[in-house]
Amino acid sequence: MVSCSMAIILIPIFLPLLTGLWFWSRPLFSGTWRRSPAWFTWSAVLLLLGTGVTYLVGSLAGASLDPEEACHEAGQTYDRAYRRANFDEYTRWFPLHDKCHAGYDLVPAWVNPALVVLPVLALLCLAHAVRLAVGLRRTKESRTKEKGTS
């Protein structure tokens, strides 16, 4: 029964995702992605979605109502004095931390670098999309002017 209900939940999520991924990947195979502002815009959207998912993974790492239990499940000791002394460290929005003690963090090591790299790549994609769109517009304008003068 659990697998049936899980399928009911996952199908509406993965079907649009796979459809969008299909349409996003088509220009890759045809080679038209280099000249497509829309492709770079959608890449930026996907990168920002990836940033959101990464933040969710990081913020839910060791997501237990009892942090001591989460640390023991990870095979680590729980240092209550360390957590009290560093309360502000694991309540910040960025960088994400949920440390059991000074030497072990429940948040995976890749999360914080990914939270920096993914938005930067999205910004670069958007900048390149704008550059391509302006270039295409200028090319169209110069072609229409040439047709008008001849």
Overview of the molecule:
This protein is mainly alpha-helical. 69% of the residues lie in helices and 3% in strands. It contains 5 helices and 2 strands. It has helices at residues 2-30, 37-59, 67-73, 80-85, 111-149; strands at residues 99-101, 104-105. β1 (99-101) and β2 form a beta hairpin. The longest helix has 39 residues, at 111-149.
Task: Describe, in short, the structure shown.
The chain has helices spanning 2-30, 37-59, 67-73, 80-85, 111-149; strands at 99-101, 104-105. It is mainly alpha-helical and 150 residues long.
Q: Helix amount, in percent?
A: 55-70%
Spell the H/E element sequence: HHHHEEH
Spatial order of strands in the largest sheet: 1-2
Largest sheet: 2 strands, antiparallel
Overall mean confidence score, pLDDT: 87
Strand content: under 5%
Rg, Cα atoms, Å: 23 Å
What general form does the structure show? Answer: elongated
Beta-strand segment tally: 2
What structural category arises from helix and sheet content? Answer: mainly alpha
The number of helices is 5
How far apart, in Å, are the first and last alpha carbons?
Answer: 72 Å
| Low-confidence residue ranges | none
